[in-house]
Amino acid sequence: MRYDAGEVITAMVTPFNKNRDVDYEKVESLAFQLANTGSDAILVTGTTGEAPTLSFDEEIEILCSVKRAVNQHAKVIMGTGSNSTETAIKTAKFAEKNNADAILSVVPYYNKPSQAGMIEHFSAIAEAVNLPIILYNIPSRTGVNMSVETVKTLAKKYENIIGIKQSYGDMDAITELKSSCPSDFVIYSGDDSLTLPMLSLGAHGVISVASHLFGIEIKSMIRNFKTGDVMTAKNMHLKLYPIFKKLFMAPNPVPVKAALAYKDLIEDYVRRPLVELTKAEKADLIFTLDSI
């Protein structure tokens, strides 16, 4: 394997205080908690971390805070994607300078590049840094799908493009990625509810939201599947499925922040344009959470 970031990567929220400033004390305490409850790696400044609302200085400080907190007990991956190639390169270089273990780089959003444009974008990033790079394909947010052929081209050309987070429920694409990309290129499910189906087609693990709350259980599901105890893995999937879905009852990360606040791990604040759950929505979420 080119690089193993682990099987359970938590896409970590960014805790805010009541003024909606980054609460770095909570950043560190949450990262420490995740590193000790099933997370092999922690992804900071991704969509779940509300990266679109963070300043560049905040992003770097979050990375450094999490690195201190986990103290090599988990890898730390930084979301460095942008719809500007030059900005994506700049952020990737800062991630490398500040000792990130790897980066996650999303398909450029809003400007909807062609497949040729995606190849140029990710090639420029791969040539600018030596860090392991996980591609991130999420058509529902970017407006365009990265084709299997594009992923294959990049994976074969660049050793540091080591995998993909696939947030797209196309199982044929997973099959095609496994059959056409190098054998050491890893696939991560980008949706908790698709982890088990993708594992059955050769995915390595998940970049998860639910692992904030059920990291040990998700880790056991993956381990059981890979060691041949498929029935136990299936039963865990069925047990967790309601919360997998409920954590996306509103735009991510609004529900998971409410759940973490209920567990007294962070305060329940998001940055605009996101808004917190209503009282009725929170009650619905908590009922599901307590039912697991």
Return the CATH architecture. Alpha-Beta Barrel
Class by SSE composition: alpha/beta
Task: Give the SSE order as H and E letters.
Answer: EHEHEHEHEHHEHEHEHHHH
Please give the alpha-carbon distance between the first and last residues. Answer: 35 Å
* Count of discrete structural domains: 1
* CATH homologous superfamily caption: Aldolase class I
Strand order of the largest sheet: 1-2-3-4-5-6-7-8
> Beta-strand percentage?
5-15%
- Please outline the major beta sheet: 8 strands, parallel, barrel
Q: What coarse outline follows from CA principal-axis ratios? A: globular
Question: Layout of helices and strands, plus pairs?
Answer:
Elements: E1 8-11, H1 24-35, E2 41-44, H2 56-70, E3 75-79, H3 85-97, E4 102-106, H4 115-128, E5 133-137, H5 139-142, H6 148-157, E6 161-166, H7 171-180, E7 186-189, H8 195-199, E8 205-208, H9 211-226, H10 230-246, H11 254-262, H12 279-291
Parallel strand pairs: 1-2, 1-8, 2-3, 3-4, 4-5, 5-6, 6-7, 7-8
Helix pairs in contact: 1-2, 3-4, 4-6, 6-7, 9-10, 11-12
Structural overview:
By secondary structure, this protein is of the alpha/beta class. Helix content is 47%, strand content 13%. The chain has an eight-stranded parallel β-barrel with strand order 1-2-3-4-5-6-7-8, surrounded by six helices. Strand 3, helix 3 and strand 4 form a beta-alpha-beta unit. The model has no long low-confidence stretch (mean pLDDT 97).
